Amino acid sequence: MERYFIEESGPWYVVPLSDLRAKQHTVGGKGVWLTRLAVAGLPIPTGFHITTAAYRRFVIENRLQPAIEKALEGVDSHQPATLEAAAQSIRETFIKGRIPEEISVAVSLAYANLPGGFPAVAVRSSATAEDQPSLSFAGQQSTYLNVSSIPALFEAVKRCWASLWTARAIAYRLQHQVEIKSLAMAVVVQVLVPAQASGVLFTAHPITGARNLAVINASWGLGEAVVAGLVTPDTLTVEKTTGRVLERLVADKQVWAVRVAQGTEVQPIPRHLRNKPVLDDAAAARLVQIGVQIEEMFHRPVDIEWTYLNGEFAIVQARPVTALPEVPTTARFDWKVPDPKARYLRASIVELLPDPLSPLFATLGCRTISQGMQRLVGQLTGSIERPPEYKLTTLNGYAYLVLRFKPGQYWRLIKHIPFKVSGLLSNSEQRWREQARPAYVQAVQRWEVKPLNELSAAEILAGVNEILDRAVDHYTTLQSGLIPSAGLSEMMFNSFYNRFIRRKEDPTALTFLLGFDSIPMLAEKSLYDLARWGQGHPDLAETLQKTPAYQLAGLLSNAKIPTEVEKGTWAEFQEYFQYHLQQFGHSIYGLDFSKPLPLDDPTPLLETIKFFLSGQGANPYLRQQTASEQRKQAHQSTLARLRGLRRTIFQKLVTWAQRSAPLREDGLADVGLGWPLVRKMLLELGKRLVQGGVVAEPEDIFWLLEEEVEQSAVQLDQGKEISSQFQKAVQQRKATWQTQKRVTPPPVLPRRSRFLGFDLEKWSPAQVGDLDQMIHGIGASPGQVTAPASVLNGPEDFGRMSQGQVLVAAITTPAWTPLFALAAGVVTDVGGPLSHSSIVAREYGIPAVLGTGVATKRIQTGQTIAVDGTAGTVILVAGQLG
Fold first, then answer.
1. pTM, two decimal places
2. CATH architecture group of domain 193-328
3. Which of 198, 322, 425, 552 sits in a 20 to 30 Å window from 509, CA-based?
């Protein structure tokens, strides 16, 4: 039967519901989630997808695209009459269309092969743009129940295709600026469940947003009456962890949807059922348990449509909830420190860890980093055997750098550091280029060539540990060389230039340090070059611009060729893009290895290419050339008027500063060199744990502790049944993480701590302002700008950034560099004068305020803010939301 579904020589018109090859761009949002649920073993009625390829073929064969575009001319989302007229016109053209023979044959064969042969089915539309985390098209396309013949099925399919263009769907897309040319509709065909009862389940409270509660709406008959709002259903509020029904409201249910000869009909409910509860407590608990499983797959609360027959539930639809209220943080966090004599800082390497840590990184990652940092401080203080404490720990899920020096260790620090630092700075580049980086690369290469499926679990963990060890050595080499060298050289040059050389009309010290290449800048140029090359291929450029980035990522991962693009052109684009990923795809968005990389999900990079194609974003070559010419001119004119000692010192300091900053950026860009392989190895272990019933998904391995992974690995290698199951623990840890994410960790603990006479809170890279309308931080790139904010939580939000907005984020790493081409300014929660954000913002000539501690929680997207990168302040302009 498989040959009827998959046409290897051409497009896929029909795909089995349980086939993992079903992707968002081929079966739509609704369809792809039904496939994932079916594969996971959840109770999903059997069926098949009619793919977007069939929709596009139907549109092309019947020449419908011109009719669609003509109908949409002059449509105004604020004038319902224009929307309805357009929808009616498009619907009529679809109904009159003829389904091509290849599609009709494939669909007929798939229908005939369903259980029972030509059974009654439910036919549901599934748009490629629906059921995304940021947009929900719930209720905007069509469902047809009790379809029981081939002619009726084809009629329902055409109506589903036409429902892509309902008045409501057209208005919604206009309001949310959804590109229409790339839209397509898939159709899901499933065996109809002749439900005794049906309804909707929310895995969070839709009114209060409480994530610990589930809410069920239930009524008799088919689900059509509940979803359409034709009946007042029973409402049950259930505690998710226990399944206990906390509240039950039994409604007077007056109508229900029932099957008739053709389709369905709404009829009065028999009197004896009107006030009878639809679900008892045990059934409600079973339904919520299924809902929790689905929520874990979505990693967020979900809205589920369900049916109930003879004591069994079936899930007919699931989508993420997109408009759920945020729950105020009610948990009280105790920020008391384990050791009052130690100092706990959100600084240094912690700048790369802005969020609560995943449990595996909090154990395995922090342990490895702490061991490397202890080795470093031992070398610096001349106390290898008993060094001072210099390590990472976690408080309420957040990483903190711990400093603990005993009196004698203070003396060793003061005694050794001046001599050690001098030596470390003088050979910092050599240590990085000739020792730390090669050792890191070699470790990665050594494990890359080994077939993971042939390695034992213990061997895989050994490889992960070796790569992490070399990664930490790489970072501590930067920490003891290139990073302080960049900061010290810039500080000394600025001080000397401003005090002894600069005249009123002379350029700023910053002019002498801009216009150099670094890995992040080369990565941006690579994407710009790719976009510029794409502009020379109009069909490719148009396809890239009109197709959502996530769909492009799907095409690239599945080696599918867009029909509008010539095969050779698309192959070249794939080759160039793959080369970019090989060179720069390891750049991290955050140090926690649970976070995906550009290699894992290139959607943000494709968004950047689309930016450049649309004319947004500055030409990086032109920007660099301008900065370079200004630097050279300033350098030459300054040297021409200097003599003697001042000239010698100026030349040495400016040369040192000019060389150090790009090297620092190169080093930081390579911190994640081993992360693609580490993630691949851990996910391989995760797959084995799924097979062993330990966790539900491979990614759940990141929510286990190191010791739990090690114990499970031993049992895997011994061929024993793994005794522990962690699904509930994983669920609880994810919920805890969400709660922790909503709090702001103090920058220094204990408060107002001092170290070697310095006020640590004053120098911390996260300071919280006192004024309601002002946020204080560190001025890291000079200048002022007032503009709308774009608050980005991570790479998944890159597509929301528009030119001229202020980029507001927890941190930015080298992987964020392309967004600086669009930004009017930068504001971060974590970071300091030596952070990546600071250096890149100065290259782009935009103001930056870093280390605010609270920017992402105090600023809203669209809010106008005034950023002063000289003073280090951000003013929230009241009443300016866009």
1. 0.63
2. 2-Layer Sandwich (3.30)
3. 425
